[in-house]
Design brief:
single chain; alpha+beta; Pseudouridine synthase; Archaeosine Trna-guanine Transglycosylase, Chain: A, domain 4; 3 domains; 9-stranded mixed β-sheet; 18 strands; elongated
Length: 278
């Protein structure tokens, strides 16, 4: 199901909220959002939690508002803000610097992040006052569009690969302009092909119940669909590869009646069961 996460709640808060509505049913999220952030948070219910890894890898789209002239250990306004001396930055200078952050880049995650360091989350170490040194990682920014600018505030539309930290992106843009910058607002508008117009608020879930908003897995995964019947369906359910001429890649596999069976991977000639939902 696709939830519109409100600001001020963690992704785990939303999971707990939905789990309580479902009276203890297994629920998991498919990629965290910062407490400050709002927008698309895809939850997996019951056996669909086994499919979370496919959604974690999807590209993301964000709208983010940043503000020059401040630093924060969390790289956003939820942290302790400190003013930073800044040259007056023009719109032209900001647009020019954005090209340096487009494409494949090396990015250091924020100290306040959920990355594990020697068995502990980085944010736990940071809260304890311990130094947090995270290695840079390769991410890809597909596009950066300046939506608005009124110094010291600016708003960007960011299309990026999984694993990108928008807080680090805003911080790095500020540093590249001889200043610093923090995230003021952050909204995830899309995960893969699932966008905010499909998301439901917690208020509606509480009022109308969860069940009407649970989607079949193949509608969210976005893979091409293959339908199997009879013997082929039984073989797939039992984990047997099938001789099928398909384009290489991942497929949502359905029964003849349209029930989701699992995910298969094709090499062009053979469809191999990768995840089978009993």
């Amino acid at each position: 199901m696709v939830v519109d996460k409100p600001s001020g709640k963690t992704s785990h808060d939303v999971v707990d909220f939905v789990r309580n509505l479902l009276k203890g049913e297994k629920v998991g999220h498919t990629g965290t959002l910062d407490p400050l952030a709002t927008g698309v948070l895809i939850l997996a219910v019951d056996r669909a939690t086994r499919l979370s890894e496919y959604l974690l890898k999807n590209d993301k789209v964000y709208r983010v508002k940043g503000r020059f002239g401040f630093s924060s250990p969390t790289y956003d306004i939820d942290g302790e803000l400190s003013p930073v001396e800044c040259p007056e930055i023009s719109k032209e200078e900001l647009v020019s610097i954005l090209s340096r952050f487009t494409g494949k880049i090396q990015q250091v995650p924020p100290p306040y992040s959920a990355i594990r360091v020697k068995g502990k989350r980085a944010y736990q170490l940071a809260r304890e006052g311990k130094p947090v040194e995270l290695p840079p990682r390769s991410v890809e920014i597909h596009s950066l569009e300046l939506l608005s600018f009124s110094y010291p505030d600016f708003e960007l539309l960011v299309q990026c690969s999984s694993g990108t930290y928008v807080r680090s992106l805003i911080h790095d843009i500020g540093r590249a302009l001889g200043c610093d910058a923090v995230v003021v607002e952050l909204r995830r508008t899309c995960v893969g092909k699932i966008c905010e117009d499909q998301a439901v608020s917690l208020e509606i879930l509480e009022r109308e119940g969860v069940e009407p908003f649970i989607k079949p897995p193949h509608e969210v995964l976005g893979f091409p669909v293959v339908k199997l019947s009879g013997k082929r369906e039984r073989l797939f359910r039992n984990g047997t590869p099938l001789s099928l001429l398909l384009k290489p890649g991942l497929y949502s596999v359905l029964s003849e009646t349209g029930d989701f069976i699992g995910v298969g991977r094709s090499n062009g000639e053979v469809l191999k069961p990768e995840k089978v939902i009993a």
